[in-house]
Amino acid sequence: MTRPLRQAFTLTEIIAVLVLLGVLGAVIGLHFARSPSQLITERDRLELHIRHAQIQALADTEPWKIEFMSGGTSWQLIPPPDSSNTARLPGAFDPSRSESNDTRVFVSGITVSGTSTIRFDALGRPVDNSATPLNSPLVLTLSDGTNARTLTILPETGLVQ
């Protein structure tokens, strides 16, 4: 009695398919896992500095602002003209970078768009140039040319999201 022949894959074919799946998985994984870590870090740092400006305005009872410069590649904390407080961004001083205590420069290639200035009144509310509280959220977009992250400042409360 003869057994019927079963057709199956050879060990070489199975190994070749597994290698191809591994390479394909690695390429796809790298493509999707490539996180814009510098962009996320800069967004978080800008959020911290915006909140710092808001807290300074609350403590000083005078408007403080953050002004974006050089085409959105840097920002500066600006106190009221008659304030005795000095403008110092938290963690801004980095000896390896050429920036002062009140200015922060984005990592190369990152820019911000949406507004040129963010102002907070003595109640911590975001306001426009005429010191009128904003009616709608202020949305900033940080971009590295490939990826983008948004930062939203809500009217009335100034909550940064």
Provide structural commentary:
With 161 residues, the protein is α+β, with helices and mostly antiparallel strands. It has a single domain (38-153), classed as minor pseudopilin epsh domain (minor pseudopilin epsh fold). Helix content is 29%, strand content 22%. The protein has two helices and eight strands. The strands form two sheets. The chain has a five-stranded antiparallel β-sheet, covered by helices on one side. A three-stranded antiparallel β-sheet has the order 4-7-8, covered by helices on one side.
Produce a short descriptive summary.
The chain is α+β, with helices and mostly antiparallel strands. It is 29% helix and 22% strand.
Core attributes:
minor pseudopilin epsh fold; alpha+beta; elongated; 161 residues; five-stranded antiparallel sheet
Question: What is the topological layout?
Answer:
Layout: H1 11-33, H2 37-60, E1 64-69, E2 74-78, E3 103-105, E4 111-113, E5 117-120, E6 126-127, E7 138-143, E8 148-153
Antiparallel strand pairs: 1-2, 1-5, 2-3, 4-7, 5-6, 7-8
